[in-house]
Amino acid sequence: MLRRIGDLCCARPLSAPRPDGRFICQYVREIGEVIEVLDNSSRFHEVVGRRDSVLVVLFHRLWDPNSAKIRSAYERIVETCCTSIRFATMEFDDWSRVVEEFRITSVPTTLIFVHGVEVERILGARTEEELRTDLAGFM
N or C terminus: fewer CB in 10 A for the chain? Predict the structure, then answer.
């Protein structure tokens, strides 16, 4: 049974809530990869602050067709990607401190962090093949 959380469908029930009461949407397919849904600036900074080797964050809008296209491509990549890259999504909010701080001016926008430092920015929709090429240097 698929459960829909925000813009992501989960292949299994949600994990237990974290201490802050939020859930992580888990894609438990063949490799059990996780796409985290970041719902506020505190959570964004917490995830970036973990300084994972590579973190890819997609800023999107639920109603935007280009955002839907790139989200689908990310979902397919997560199913087959190595585990060295962590993926997260954050819905674009015009008033968000994160949007202001990182100067996100359009959606979809993807930020790539290496050890907590932004190293690359991808603007606009991409096909799955284009995204794989963009991410190849980080895999």
Answer: N
Closest CA to 82 of 115, 47, 33, 119: 33
What's the CA gap between 96 and 80, in Å, rounded?
32
DSSP E strands in 1-139: the ranges are: 3-5, 8-10, 35-38, 54-60, 85-91, 109-114, 117-123
Q: Looking at the domain assignment, is residue 20 inside a domain?
A: yes
Q: What is the pLDDT of residues 55-78, one digit of tens each?
A: 999 999 988 999 888 988 888 888
> Full-prediction pTM beyond 0.85?
no
Looking at residues 38-51, what average pLDDT do you find? 88
Q: How many domains does the chain have?
A: 1
CA-based radius of gyration for the chain: 14
Contact between 37 and 25 under an 8 Å Cβ cutoff? The reply is yes
Task: Kindly tell me the burial class for residue 120, based on how many C-beta atoms sit within 10 Å of its own C-beta (0-12, 13-18, 19 or more).
Answer: middle
4-17 per-position pLDDT tens digit: 333 333 333 344 44
**139 lies in some domain:** no
> The dihedral of CA 47, 30, 3, 127: what is its sign?
positive
